[in-house]
Amino acid sequence: MRRLIVFSLLLLVACQQETQTTKQIASDTSVSVVDFSGATVTLKKPAERIVSLAPHITENIYSAGAGNKLIGVVSYSDYPAAVTDLPLVGGYASINVEKIIELQPDLIISWESGNSTASIQQLQALGYPVYIDQPDTLADVAHSIKDIGVLSGTTAEAARVAENFLISIKEIEEQYKSKPTLKTFYQVWNDPLQTINGTHIISDAIALCGGVNIYADEAVIAPVINIESILERNPDAIIASGMSSARPDWLDEWYAWPSINAVQNDHLFFVDPDHIQRHTVRILLGINTICKQLDAARTPSEL
Questions:
Q1: Residue-level pLDDT at 299
Q2: CA of residue 222 relative to chain centroid, distance
Q3: Is 242 helix (H, G, I), strand (E, B) or coil?
Q4: Which residues lie across from 40 on neighbouring strands?
Q5: Which of the listed residues 31, 60, 142, 225 has the most CB atoms within 10 Å of its CB?
Q6: Domain 179-302, classified CATH 3.40.50.1820, yes or no
């Protein structure tokens, strides 16, 4: 009888140890990050089914090495090409919550300033883990990619891509930090006449190339302005984006205002919006274009 009691106690201890070990292993697979809203996002294990709620987020998921875990995207997610075969969950400003529920993701990555707050709150209320993304600076792009890597279990790949991105930014900074500064007007659209302020990532890119955003002091991130203020601020360079990879015809409308320095010297430039308006590693392409354009504006004889 005593032997039976001892054996039972040993068996109980062994079971407890096994249970503790199992709990420890489960705990060790959990991942956690703090998102851009300051909230902690914790998953019991790295995500295997991810929904992206913005085109730039879709790109960054691929950059983080987690593209094979992506199961749903929003409209205008067109890079890399493989994403065009994925199910759509609406537009970034009009999320289809029912479609997301149908896909049953274990992680949703949202865009703080682009997605509907009500839709995000609804998804959170349903119990879906939501990471809120808002990369307003070039450094934030690297931060986003690293966080996605942690949450998707691709930490090493994401860290490598993020570090290479930051190295490239630093190299460009070193190359242009001693260049003469140029007053720069970035034109998002012509009707209404719209630009960006100093908190936008494009302003960060312009500064990296030695430009000064003439509307950096505006309170609104994408203010609508007028011709009179342009004449007053008199930019040395005008850089337009538009809606496609083709140079917009409306850029030539500036020739009607020859008193502007940028117009006098034919410093009217274009950059592909996909290369500068998306918060991804491809912004390096847009930065390189802007840097070359501002260099040309510093040396008119080379135009």
A1: 81
A2: 17
A3: coil
A4: 34
A5: 60
A6: no
